[in-house]
Amino acid sequence: MEIKIIGDKVRYKFPSDNGWKDGAWNTCLECETRFASYSRQKKPFCSEQCRHDYYNLELTCDNCGLPFSKKKSRIGEFNYCSNACVGEAKRIDKAGSQAKKQTVLRTSYRKSVGYCEDCGESRDYMLCVHHIDGNKENEIESNWEVLCSNCHRKRHLKIVDDSLVYDSRVLTDRTLLSEF
């Protein structure tokens, strides 16, 4: 495509065209830059980036605290970065606002560590926050450790009839953990 700017007029020609056609001067709604377009139609943006920036806002997820982009028209009372965060938030809301706050903190902590502190597993869906002392009411960050589901199971084993059995209410003696 060829473009000619003659004074205040814009003219353009595609290789398949026989002659020159009139274009238009437009002003970008986002950055207010004046630009030439190859149609008489009013173009609102000079680039796709300006279109994105105009219609979207950078937000922080109400559940996990990570940044994400969302259309201005879709912003509501709560804003989540993914369907997983929406589901997690709905489960939390049933438990109450204090529980929600603590779960948000634990989720943020889990994502900031990003791997199992025992075996090094890094797939996020495998990770959870374990209360070291076994007391779920003790929500101090120093009482948390990030574990994958397998290592977390190991933290809740008890010996019954010379075999190990999972029980979420008990904590495995730390001296036994090295044997697994």
How would you summarize what this structure contains?
With 180 residues, the protein is of the alpha+beta class.
Summarize this structure as a short list of keywords or feature phrases:
single chain; about 180 residues; alpha+beta; about 25% strand
Note down, in words, how this protein is organized.
There is one protein chain. With 180 residues, the chain is an alpha+beta fold. Among the domains are: 2-46, no CATH class; 48-110, no CATH class. Helix content is 27%, strand content 27%. The chain has 5 helices and 11 strands; from the N terminus they run βββββαββααββαββα. The chain has helices spanning 48-55, 83-95, 97-113, 149-154, 174-177, and strands at residues 2-6, 9-13, 21-22, 24-27, 34-37, 56-60, 67-71, 127-131, 144-148, 157-160, 163-166. The protein has a 3-stranded antiparallel beta sheet, with no helix packed on it. Strands 4-5 form a two-stranded antiparallel ribbon. Strands 6-7 form a two-stranded antiparallel ribbon. The model has no long low-confidence stretch (mean pLDDT 81).
Name the average pLDDT: 81
Total number of beta strands? 11
Q: Structural class from helices and strands?
A: alpha+beta
Helix amount, in percent?
25-40%
Spatial shape? rod-shaped
Distance between the termini: 69 Å
List low-pLDDT spans.
none
Strand share of the residues?
25-35%
